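$ run holo --ligand "flavin-adenine dinucleotide" --emit tokens
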Amino acid sequence: MAEASYDVIVVGAGIIGASTAHFLKKKGVDRVLLIDRGDPASGGTGKSAAIVRSYYSIPVMARLAKEAVQLFHNLEAEIGVDGGFHATGFTQLVPPDWVDTAKELVAMHQSLGIDTDFVEESEWAKRFPWLESDGIGAIVVENSSGYADPVQTTEGFVSAFTKAGGEFRPRTPVRALARTGDRITGIILEDESIASGAVVNATGPWSTFLAASAELDLPMRAVREQDTVWEVVPGRELPTTPVSNPIEATYMRPMGEGRWLFGRGYPKPYFDVDPYNYKESADEEFVMDLRDRWCQRIPALQGSKLLHAYAALYDVTPDWIPFVGPRSGLDGYYDAAGGSGHAFKTGPIFGRELADWIVDNEVLDDFRQFSYDRLASGKSFNQAFGGNRV
Ligand SMILES: Cc1cc2nc3c(=O)[nH]c(=O)nc-3n(C[C@H](O)[C@H](O)[C@H](O)COP(=O)(O)OP(=O)(O)OC[C@H]3O[C@@H](n4cnc5c(N)ncnc54)[C@H](O)[C@@H]3O)c2cc1C
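-- output --
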């Protein structure tokens, strides 16, 4: 392949690729190309519930989520436009048999400086008048968390990237990675090859296929995830924050203008699909079941009208944590995928840390575990369930 045309090519303009491209430019990398077969956020990012919270059981994930919340609060300063973040707070319901774990998690989160605490049961009726409290063991709130508009955030990162001199090519599928021995040397498009000093594979559920084009292993399930949007009856008292409810295995968040997004949360069944060919509309049975689950917990939702229902993809790694970073024995290649259904919030932090890794070859020790190398070295993340999957 000819002399490199770019210093770095980022394939995939979801939240992870778009933010990686932005932070590479911010770090002064000269020639950066961001390329997507669609438009920004046309993968899972565009359909994300985009709840931004810190409730994680793995300490490094809680640390990154805390930094993500801070970044979302300063998003306009970072990207120069409104990224659509709403700092509403976040409400986590806890089943009785998870309360002891939740106590450990809240203590860990507070030690990291996360603004979180339990709400005393005596205050529930006043603070959560909309809630049917039967079967709830505890309630945790995070005061600085919230939700974002995932398309607006991602477009904001792309716009900051192009304003800084980065090049963005939408609607351009990458057919394969170019490889010579133990080096990835660029990308192959329909009718041209482009050489690059480094390539970032940020193609979400499709990253396995791009990796395989250069004979790289990248284990990832594509799992179908359905979400629904409802118009609630005007004038009713409802939560003002996103709510995670493992008791009925659901989540919800406000969307503004009397609309609410409802989804199914952990624990639930997961269905593997072909990411190039899956049903993008929701199943009627799923929609009705979801409505019943939420109406049971928040009776004021009765009478809500369904506006929209759809399915998108989770890209799930073996330990439900993304692969981010270089791999031993391979030059010029970086993984940046495998959000496993929870990497909208941390996407920009993964992008920022990856840019540091690429440019300075430096990251904090706890971040090195995100490399694909963890599989071979037996250092996968432990799965601990304390109200959320990770
Ligand atoms: C329904 C749903 C709800 C979610 N809710 C939350 C939530 O509340 N909070 C949270 O933190 N996370 C949530 N997530 C997870 C989060 O949205 C994802 O982890 C994150 O958006 C993934 O971003 P990404 O950039 O890795 O991938 P994607 O957004 O999938 O982006 C990959 C991009 O690569 C492009 N691409 C693929 N193949 C090629 C190719 N060959 N050539 C060029 N381009 C290519 C695609 O077009 C796409 O734009 C949710 C996800 C879903 C689906």
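-- notes --
Residues 201 and 335 are 5 Å apart (CA to CA).
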